[in-house]
Amino acid sequence: MSTDNQLQVIFITNDRKNKEKAVEEGIPAFTCEEYVKSLTANPELIDRLACLSEEGNEIESGKIIFSEHLPLSKLQQGIKSGTYLQGTFRASRENYLEATVWIHGDNEENKEIILQGLKHLNRAIHEDIVAVELLPKSQWVAPSSVVLHDEGQNEDDVEKEEEREQMLKTAVSEKMLKPTGRVVGIIKRNWRPYCGMLSKSDIKESRRHLFTPADKRIPRIRIETRQASTLEGRRIIVAIDGWPRNSRYPNGHFVKNLGDVGEKETETEVLLLEHDVPHQPFSQAVLSFLPKMPWSITEKDMKNREDLRHLCICSVDPPGCTDIDDALHCRELENGNLEVGVHIADVSHFIRPGNALDQESARRGTTVYLCEKRIDMVPELLSSNLCSLKCDVDRLAFSCIWEMNHSAEILKTKFTKSVINSKASLTYAEAQLRIDSANMRDNITTSLRGLNKLAKILKKKRIEKGALTLSSPEVRFHMDSETHDPIDLQTKELRETNSMVEEFMLLANISVAKKIYEEFSEHALLRKHPAPPPSNYEILVKAARSRNLEIKTDTAKSLAESLDRAESPTFPYLNTLLRILATRCMMQAVYFCSGMDNDFHHYGLASPIYTHFTSPIRRYADVIVHRLLAVAIGADCTYPELTDKHKLADICKNLNYRHKMAQYAQRASVAFHTQLFFKSKGIVSEEAYILFVRKNAIVVLIPKYGLEGTVFFEEKDKPNPRLIYDDEIPSLKIEDTVFHVFDKVKVKIMLDSSNLQHQKIRMSLVEPQIPGISIPPDDISNMNLNGPQKKKMKFEK
Predict the structure, then answer these.
(1) What distance in Å separates the CA atoms of residue 378 and residue 388, rounded to the nearest whole number?
(2) Which range has highest mean pLDDT (203-207, 757-761, 766-770)?
(3) Domain C-terminal end among 166, 190, 214
(4) Within a domain: residue 565?
(5) Closest among 777, 751, 761, 671 to 711, alpha carbons compared
(6) Whole domain around residue 610: which residue ranges?
(7) Which cofactors are reported in the record for this sequence (predicted)?
(8) Measured in Å, how far apart are the chain's first and last C-alpha atoms?
């Protein structure tokens, strides 16, 4: 404050001319950097300044490493004339000196271009849109099979990099060579804030440090910070500011401290940020569109709605489920046929097109289920209350009702908005007990028995058409009620009732897909599952052949039938292993707009058309499908975006991305909880089966824990064993022992914390015994897996 109680105005600008002008006019003016540095009470703010000034930065070696990026105008000309190609830069997790560029457009010939070596990567970062120049055929390379992680501390060791680049160039046959290129410019940067850890400089008192991102596809980043000692051992967020031509790494600045590495809250936050899962609390703007409480059904709500509260409807879900999307009923009609209903929460009644609640749900796209946490797509008032079809309360629903005969043939289908009152919320186990119990004959149990009987027929018909029954080792953690740490890990048990619910959900989704496509052939939101290219099945066919079994893959039906036949009386688990392997061969199912595609087929379900209708609380696709169906039956009005196929295609693109990220986040959560489990469990030995053989390792599955891991046979500082790899069988011979896919082995499992940032489950071979390779069952004393010694001291107090 100045003396006459006026606020003093100061002018902050990074524009030199503006600053000079202000000073001439007597206005105190500072650059952003000068102003922040003058706030002596908060020295930590300086760390958050973007690193803009590239000149006068004495870290720079002055030696130009990279070639200049061409200006955008030149790139656009080059792309137009075909000199350059535009695509998305995808860095490799396995090898920091290699990347691929996925070329945009329909050019089938060079869909994917390989880049090798620092200079050819030319400062592009994962997911950037880049322009590449194709190299002459004489310079084409093959994808390398070397695993290389950037572990150098010395930034200017570019000669060392060149040595490592030579390692990539192995002698290969002509047909292995792939189109190869180099980055000539960046069309669009796709940087985001990155989570990771500080690699503190060895130089005492240094402010300049390297930051190592958790995502191995991102290069290390140079930052300046005065808080290195407090940030060591913490997860932090860093943003990239730029990447000068004479710098081995990009420059960036510190953004936020997330907390201690290994802490559950910190690691969950990292996992959500790294998978781009929107998880901030819902804003006031979003919450303002929720219904006011206490809520009840009004006369206006009943318009265009059938009252089905008299029906004996019940829901069947996993234990502890609060977002109940679906409920079912089955009753006999006077004409002797059966009426079956699938009733889905009427979420689109509460989420109106275009408002803030709708936009936020569309952005999130899906609910994300982590091991101990659920990130909702819609606010809790809807997900766990007003839209959840709990028992003994009136709820709005969207119903799909069939009249069927006792052979499960559909005679009539009706869709209607409704109001229901569920008579029971059961778990799969409770529903199973009712079906199996001889002395229960109440309405709910009778309804369940009718549903179960029909579901078995529906499943049989589906499988006859060629639908696949695949397998994936899913695990459940049993948590300690106090510490919330996992105390037990077991594979999920599937009951008949799981299958019963699934059959009717599939049937409802197919019925709705047909209806919305009939009404809106150009803008129905559908879901397809492409058939895998034949090469995807190679690994499965070879693995089965090594056990004298034939797997046919020309159609889904022949695959399903040959999987059913692939039994071994002496090895009952073999069939499950084959199904797990078959799952790995599959393509990703995706949402698409019917007017933008002509292949609708769903390979895994052997259905010519499919969509998602049954889970609108946790999937935004279903909300759009509800809106389309409501317009089709005259229960709601349309809006412009709903019938705009380009808008719909954009929605599908975001939904496919969010679903993929949610899947990865879920896997990462399982991996983290598995680590916590083995941290407390110590070291264990378990039986395992080989899923894949690699050049220097075997990938195994441990059925007891549904856990997959890699046993490496080449270790640093140890003499390498004699390895012979045969890709055709496939097999790996180590010294005198040969390993095939599906062989049974015994492995030792432990948590390796030697790298704090990337703690991992480590597996070693126990049986069969190979001298110098296997660990004797009781010899684990020489394994230092506890990371830095000073951490250990804390626990020994």
Answers:
(1) 12
(2) 766-770
(3) 190
(4) yes
(5) 761
(6) 284-527+591-667
(7) Mn(2+)
(8) 54
Residues 543 and 615 occupy one common structural domain: no
Instruction: Indicate if 369 and 463 belong to the same structural domain.
Output: yes
What is the distance of C-alpha 39 from the center of its chain? 42
What is the value of pTM for the model shown?
A: 0.81
Q: Are residues 424 and 397 in the same domain?
A: yes
* 396 and 449 co-located in one domain: yes
How confident is the model over 333-390, as pLDDT tens digits? 999 999 999 999 999 999 999 999 999 999 999 999 998 889 999 999 999 999 999 9
Secondary structure of 362-415 as H, E, C letters:
HHHCECEECCCCEECCCCHHHHHHHCCCCECCEEEEEEEEEEECCCCCEEEEEE
Instruction: Return the SS3 of 326.
Output: strand
- Of 644, 667, 690, the position where a domain reaches its end is 667
Question: How many angstroms separate the CA atoms of 290 and 680, rounded?
Answer: 44
Count of domains in the chain?
A: 4
Strands, E, within 305-364: which ranges?
Answer: 306-307, 314-317, 326-332, 338-345
Residue 372, token pair as written in the block: 């101990």
Same domain, 644 and 692: no
CA atoms of 544 and 531, how far apart (whole Å): 20
Q: Where are the beta strands (DSSP E) in 136-273?
A: 181-188, 194-199, 208-213, 221-224, 234-242, 251-260
| Interval 227-264: pLDDT, tens | 888 888 889 999 999 999 988 899 999 998 999 888 88
* 124 and 173 assigned to the same domain: yes
| Rounded distance between C-alpha atoms, residue 348 and residue 382, angstroms | 11
636 and 663 belong to one structural domain: yes
Let me know how long the chain is. 797
- High-pLDDT (> 90) share of the chain, %: 45
The pLDDT of 306-310, averaged and rounded, is 96
